[in-house]
Amino acid sequence: EKSVLPDTLTTVSQAEGKIASSMIAKGETILAHHLISENEEDMYVSRKVKEGYRAVSIGVNFNQSVSNLIEPEDEVDAVYSKGNKDQGTVVTVMLVENARVLAVGRKFTTPEFKKEPYAEYNSITLELKPEDALKLVNGSEQGSIHFILHKRPAMKEENTPVEKN
What we know:
It is a single chain. This protein is an alpha+beta fold. The chain contains three helices and seven strands. It has helices at 38-41, 45-48, 130-142, and strands spanning 19-20, 35-36, 54-59, 75-82, 91-104, 123-128, 144-149. The strands form two sheets. Strands 3-6-5-4-7 form a five-stranded antiparallel sheet. It is elongated, with a radius of gyration of 21 Å.
């Protein structure tokens, strides 16, 4: 016990419910600062991005963001429009479908409506395959992007989504 570092975990219960914040080799002593809670994990958008995907942010205004009603973990489609509405030459196409929202503004977590005040934002960060991220960025540079919000699955009492049948 005298040779153990002060931050060393000594029981399994000290690690339960935590996530490794760095690589831990088999047989390695686990130090408390190598583990984080799920709440701490949510503080980093980069940790939310799935393998093979990228996080990309697009600037939005009130209308493009469904009146600032899009929230983290929502699913959206991105619609691209380009042209001159005065000449009747506007072209609108579906650019990206079923994209996961990682963040709105600097907010990374789903709101707890009773605790969080409303806050406007001017960007949406999506999780996309690299080729879709390129299409979205290119579209936002050439025309305008609007987001279409999908229906969120109903929630169970313990605040987890109900499985789709």
